[in-house]
Write the structure tokens for this entry.
Amino acid sequence: MIDSADTPGGCWTFYSALHPDEVINARPGDSFSIGGGISALVVGEQVDFEWEPVIDQDGYKFRAIKVRPRRDIPPWRVERIGR
């Protein structure tokens, strides 16, 4: 869960929201191999994130769609493997 003044009650997030933009902007049918980067956040760390409103996502009214920690992270390796 991520919290901010814009998302009262918290914002649901999943590790896939941490993936690089190339994957987030993929079209249906695209396949990628992703490595490096990060797959988890540290409790209490600061992040920048984009969110969308939802009716109910596991009890939350907001869902993160992009999450970027404010710390240095290892580079991502993104390889397109299908379309």
Q: What stands out?
A: Helices lie at 21-24. The chain has a mean pLDDT of 88. Strands lie at 2-4, 7-11, 31-36, 47-57, 60-69, 76-82.
